[in-house]
Amino acid sequence: MRLRNLFLFGAAALAIASPPSADTEEDITRENTYFNGKKVPPILELTPANYKEELKKSKFLMVKHFSPWCGHCQEFLPTFQTLYEYYYTSKPVGKDADFTGFYDFRFAELNCVAYADLCTENKVAAWPTTILFEDGEPLVTFRGVKHISVLSGAVEDALEKVKPNTRPKTLELPEPGDKTSPDAKAETEKTEKADAREKGSEKELVKETEKEKETETSTAASADASTEGEATPKKTYTVNYNTPSQKVTLKPSNPNPKGLSVPLTWELFQSMVTLTQEPWFVKFYAPWCHHCQAMAPNWEQLAKEMKGRLNIGEVNCDRDTRLCKELRVRGYPSIMFFKGGEKVEYEGLRGLGDFVQYAEKAIDLSSGVPDVDFDSFKALEEKEEVIFLYFYDHATTSEDFLSLERYPLSLIGKAKLVKTRDPKLYDRYKITTWPRLIVSREGRPTYYTPLAPREMRDTRMVLNWMKSVWLPLVPELTPSNARDIMDGKIVVLGVLNRENEDSFRGAIREMKSAANEWMDKQIQLFQIHRQDLRDAKQLRIEEAEDRGDQRALRNAKNIRINMDRSDMKEATFAWVDGNFWQRWIRTTYGIDAKDGDRVIINDEDKRRYWDQTSTGNPIVPSRTSILETLNKVTVNPPKLKPKLTIGVIEKMFFDIKMTFKEHPYLSMGCILGIAFGLFQWLMGRTTRRARSHFKLEEGVGMKESKPSTLFGGSSNTATKAD
Asked: Can you give the pTM of this predicted structure?
């Protein structure tokens, strides 16, 4: 989530104040600078009056979007200025031509406080943002403070594109603020030494030599001291997108210098977290929350462990309710990782070891998507169980790379994401279209099937696919990943004893072998089913053509081959430490981990499981035992009778609940039908009672009238007789 529009009033005030433009006298009188002894004019300032015109003047224009009072922009100022001066004074290889005219490449800057509308048009949401335009269209976008080598990589790509083979193979870039490039400085020193020798200034030459030796000695001593003491971590940065990765070693920034958790208010959160590219690990708590109080010591210790490596913060939601509401904090404590205005919620355990492990991976992934070649990827496979590999080529656009940069945060603690343009990896995975995304699990590739550019850039679609494949072939079942593994799947769960190393390694090897064979079989069945559907469609087309029925032919050609496998339950593999989860295994499955390694095939959605083969023997961690049983329980209905993980009465209510969930309309219809039938029965019973009462009253009246009739009849008879 990106928090924006925080400085509305300041921007409006400065905009009204009529800031200086590039055409004013103040801009004309700006001082020139000097680099490598050459005069460099002031950098071009863009305004609404000259913006469109300047974009059209040159093929390439690199624009820095900034705010004058932004701390990060002030930090980035010498980097961009030195980059501009370095390239302005550079020359093509083997040609005596000025840089700007030969390459048609210029640099500029845009004040986003003074001209907020222009920055909004370029979708600038944070400062500083550097955009390289080609023919007036954005080519590459860099958000935040970037090292000079990163920006230089994008410049070199553009220069090589328009004028091939005119750039040096290696570049020695100056440090921000330098007024001389390293190669020019070395050339100057050589010239001075040569002059000193010619003049016979041996004393000066000796002094210079002694100084160089002293410098080398002090450098070696400091290196030895740093080796003996605490090692300072080195950061590597990828220089560019469209050339093989070149790495440079930088002086790392100093996050969390005191090893403390920083209390963050709404204002501090905006300035230190949202509008920066610095990674932050932040907890949201309430002082009265008992769980927050219990977690507090671990959080303080985490801050000490991450001293100089990762920023740690905390927000009191009783005090800063606005911030917690904006971030949709639903409970306490909530823990989130932030970088560049993007966030991901931590869902793991709250132990110190869990925090440190997550933070280590967050530091690694938040540094960006590294480039790999064939050898480095092979080495990475030995350390990582799950690796997402993004293939790109020279035609991959900046939009593709921007969408790629959104994924690492969601993969923290899950998998590793890298990119490559190594032809050897193309051949290994048979890649013929770019960009392409695959996941390698235990060396087994699974491909992201959509190939359209829109689908490759669809963050939600790609993340949903990543979530479905980011577990290893045989992961360990833990409280943090239990839902991902168990829900909606049939799980082959190995109950193993980790302490017996030989038995444990053998069981894992057997389970991985069974998992690979099962996946191969499912792929074959999928391909056979798809081919059957294609053959059926072709038969209908041929039949319609033979009859000459154009309507039937159109209908046959419009048949879509639906390969949606949502109705088929997936079978996955996992293992659990039988000693650690002994009580849960015994109460749920009735298995004692002390009896040895066992395998359970669990169907969590229906609260049932299988722990025996067709012969009545326990399922053991064996490829044969697992596959033989799995084939019989995945058919519908299962060929083996399952056991229940819940009681009979509880199972009855569970089935009713699941019926309502899976068939809500049918269930409501049944309930309404039963209710209507019950109502009719009650109404009929009431009506019958009323009728029987009426007949009874009618019968009583008739009996009482008979004597009156007889009496009247006898009276009449008597009268007649008289």
From this structure: 0.55
